[in-house]
Automatic annotation (TrEMBL), chains A, B:
This is RNA methyltransferase. GO terms for biological process: methylation; RNA processing. The lineage of its organism: Bacteria, Pseudomonadati, Pseudomonadota, Betaproteobacteria, Burkholderiales. Keywords: Methyltransferase, Transferase. One of its GO terms (molecular function) is RNA methyltransferase activity. The keyword Methyltransferase applies.
């Protein structure tokens, strides 16, 4: 196993750069915590580096990870140096450095999909990915203006689903919508059908939008189906993650 | 209108104490931002104090609030002093000081209810309240160990629903469950019925639990109905807010 003993180690300097550019395109990303690292390994992949707090490697969770890693990717660090690479207050003694899977957008999009139109909050975006994966969706298209899908907070709230999905960022949703072979469904409050009174298609591009402004009017105009979720008057609207959960699982209910 | 000009103003000192004890029982709380303040006023209530950034009161949103306030509760402050009372980076120039409504737990609980069993994350708790309100629920019971319902983050993600609900904190859910007249429903992964194959009761106490550990075994043992949400194998579980949205709106779908 490699070891890093000081800040001046060239690999450490490189790691620190990657940590600072978290979520930027084509840069390696740092996975925090045992659960995310396990999820990554469970897909049969190996990280570029697996960084461990050298004082904790006998802890069962960490030892379990090490068993499933090639020796050449493992690297031991003093606790303080590892903590400097971390975004959480109490780290679990491990960070993986991985390359985000680069997915190429197929010319024919004919699967059930999640489309994110300027969804801002990283926690919401991660929860949306997790909910979509739970509903059986494996492809996500995100517009420019959506929180970076590979940022630490999105990874954290995604709980490891990233590595089993095809994720496309900085997509011109309007351009893609014009060539779409499955129906485009938007959630909106005006001139919309009641979710529970519609026969939903088996496959669709489900668009969920900005937390305050909702889905862009240009996408609403192109939609094959406008959906609203009937709710009590006590609220103006549902949180975007709640709305997506209700829609995607109603579709699942109708077609299982 | 009152004015506060320095940190040494006695009212300012008091406000600062309340800000620091945010969410503690029986203390006034500070509402941040135009939307929450509007939601509070919309219920016909008046705050104890309405604090405004003295340089911004002609902005339309703030002027709109002032129109609906008694003059004696309004108070103008320099921007810096107001910012010191705020939990957000870019304030909207207004804070309301209000007393949380103290709800007394009725002896007979026969409405549809949300029960929170050690739900930790304030963002999740706020979203759960908002989703429950959207589903028509007005009563929430929270165990000790659940994030404080009146903390700034819960208020923010609740988006103003707090003021129209009966919220009960630090409740011994197990004790209340033993005297319950409506069915207790828990979401759990083992020995549970498929949500979409069950006839749900019109009224129930819906229990959602700790993000990692789920609902306490003692509550599961008392439940009239155990529910699981059938999902794709790509995830271990759903986020608690997604699970609640799916369950509460499936009940709404069945009974509207």
């Amino acid at each position: 196993m490699k070891t890093i003993e000081s800040r001046s180690n060239p690999l450490y300097k490189q790691l620190f750069k990657w940590q600072s550019s978290a979520g930027r395109r084509d840069e390696p990303i740092l996975l925090e915590g045992v659960h995310l690292c396990e999820a990554f390994l469970a897909l049969g992949r190996q990280p570029q580096y697996a960084l461990f707090d050298q004082t904790r490697i006998t802890e069962p969770h960490l030892a379990g990870l090490i068993e499933n890693l090639s020796e050449e990717v493992c690297c031991l660090l003093p606790a303080g140096l590892l903590a400097n690479l971390s975004n959480v207050d109490t780290g679990q003694g491990v960070l993986f450095v991985v390359r985000p899977a680069v997915a190429t957008l197929p010319t024919h999009l004919n699967a059930n999909m999640l489309w994110l139109d300027r969804v801002q909050d990283p926690g919401n975006v991660g929860t949306l990915l997790r909910t979509a994966a739970a509903a059986g969706i494996t492809r996500v298209l995100a517009s420019t203006g959506t929180a970076s899908l590979w940022s630490p907070k999105v990874l954290r709230s995604g709980q490891g689903v990233h590595f089993g999905m095809h994720l496309h960022e900085h997509i011109d949703l309007l351009a893609v919508a014009r060539t779409l072979v499955v129906p485009l469904i938007v959630t909106t409050l005006s001139e919309a059908n009641d979710l529970f009174e519609v026969e939903l298609p088996v496959q669709a591009a489900w668009v969920f939008g900005h937390e305050g402004q909702g889905v862009s009017q240009s996408l609403i105009d192109l939609a094959a189906l406008r959906i609203r979720i009937d709710h009590a008057q006590a609220v103006d609207s549902l949180n975007v993650t709640a709305a997506a959960a209700i829609c995607l699982f109603e579709q699942r209910r109708q077609h299982r």
